[in-house]
Amino acid sequence: MKKRRFPSARLLLLFFLSAVLILLSAAGSTRATLMYYSENYSVEVAVSNIGVSLLENGEVISCRNYKEDRWAEKTGYLLENRFDDERLVPGRRYPEELSVVNSGAIDSYVRVVLYKSWKNARGGKDTTLFPELIGFEMNLNRSGWIEDRKASTPERAVYYYRYPLSPGQETPALCRSFRLDPSIWKEVTELVSEEENGYRTITTTYAYDGYSFCVNAETDTVQTHNAQEALKSAWGIDANVGADGSLNLQ
Prior knowledge:
Blueprint: E1 2-5, H1 9-24, E2 34-35, E3 51-56, E4 59-67, E5 70-74, E6 94-101, E7 108-119, E8 134-138, E9 145-147, E10 156-161, E11 175-180, E12 188-194, E13 200-206, E14 212-223, H2 227-235, E15 239-241, E16 247-249
Parallel strand pairs: 1-13, 2-14
Antiparallel strand pairs: 3-4, 3-6, 4-5, 6-11, 7-10, 7-14, 8-11, 9-10, 12-13, 15-16
C-alpha cells in the first residue's frame, strides 16, 4: 500500500508569492528598467540633443533625456502591480508590449537588451535553473526589430531597431506578451522512504519552489551621424548601413 504526500498548498503558494514579491520589490531588484545613453561616441553631437524613453503597454516606464543642462531621468519597474489582484499562473499570457521612443532632438538608433534569471530564497542568482522558461512573446517579423544572435545568451537577448528614429518617433512593439512556461511544474524529484508500519512516503520536491524570477530591460541610443563608426564605438557592432539608414548586422 502506498501513501503519497503532496506538497502543501502553503508551499505551492510560496512559489507564487516569491514571484510576486520580486516584481513588487524596488530596492536592488535586477528587474529595474535602466535607461542610459552610450556616451562612448559623442564628440560630434551636442549631448543636449540626446534622449530615449522605454514604453510598457503605451506608458513611459523609464527615460533619460538631457534638458536644461542636466539629465532628466525616470526609472521604473517591469510588470509592476500586474499581479496585485490575481495569482501569477504559469502558462497564462499577460499583455506586455515594450517599445522605444526617441525623446531627443536628433535622429538616432536604439537597442533593447532583455535579461532573465532565477533567484533563490536568499536572493542569489541560480544558474542551474532555466531562464528560457521566463518567456516574452517577441514581435520580430516585419516589425523592424532584429536580434543580435552573436551577442545573445539564454539569460540575455540583444535587439536592435533597424531604422533610425526621428525625434518623437516610436518603434513598433518589440514583444507582445509575457508568461512563465508551465513546464516548471514538471521539474520535480521524488524521494521514497520506508516507514515502520510498512507504508512508503513519497516526498515530491518542485525544482522552482521558493524561487523568484527576475526580468530586466535596458535601452540606449546612438546618433546617426557617421553611423558605422558610432555603432562600432558605442555598441561594438559591425553593421552595414543602407541608403535609407537601415542597419544590417554583419
